Amino acid sequence: MELRNYTPTAGPQDIWSELDLPNEDAKLREQVSKGFSIKLFNSLASILGMQPKAMREALKIPLTTFNRRRDKGRFTMKESDRLYSLIEAFLARPIYLRGTVEPLPNG
Q1: Closest Cα partner for 40 from 4, 9, 1, 69?
Q2: Which of 4, 15, 22, 61 is nearest to 38 (CA)?
Q3: How big is the chain by its Cα radius of gyration, in Å?
Q4: pTM of whole model > 0.85?
Q5: C-alpha span between 70 and 79 (Å, rounded)
Q6: Is the dihedral of CA 16, 80, 43, 88 positive or negative?
Q7: Which of 4, 39, 63, 79 has the highest count of CB atoms within 10 angstroms of its CB?
Q8: Within a 13 Å sphere around the CA of 100, how many CA atoms are in the beta-carbon half?
Q9: Who's near 5: CB < 8 A, 6+ residues apart?
Q10: Nearest C-alpha neighbor of 82 from the set 56, 63, 64
Q11: Which band of pLDDT confidence, cut at 50, 70 and 90, is reported for residue 64?
Q12: DSSP strand E in the chain: where?
């Protein structure tokens, strides 16, 4: 049996680049104010492994409202803020899943 080194496939380094969002605060706020695109919703659902219906329900967006947003191509600022919060919750998951709090170093 031959051992081979694992080489991960190249891809985006983080969720921001994967969602084509800036990681600079001012630019990100501007996009939230303008409203995220419906494309971002679909990409985020794929990254999170969620069905679009489940994600829509988690974000408290009724189906009729979602359909209007899909036709327009954008979410409102309030809905975009909820999407942003979902991204931040996703990024915080390793902290919550770790189960233990690491002690602070004795400085």
Answers
A1: 69
A2: 61
A3: 18
A4: no
A5: 13
A6: positive
A7: 79
A8: 3
A9: none
A10: 56
A11: very high
A12: none
Rounded to whole angstroms, how far apart are CA atoms 21 and 41? 12
Residues 65 and 47 sit within 8 Å (Cβ to Cβ): no
Token pair belonging to 58:
């988690």
Amino acid identity, residue 63?
A: L
77-98 vs 25-34: helix axis angle to the nearest 10? 130
Q: Is pLDDT above 50 for 50?
A: yes
Q: What pairs with residue 74 in β-bridges?
A: 37
The one-character DSSP state at 37 is B
* Confidence check: pLDDT of 78 > 90: yes
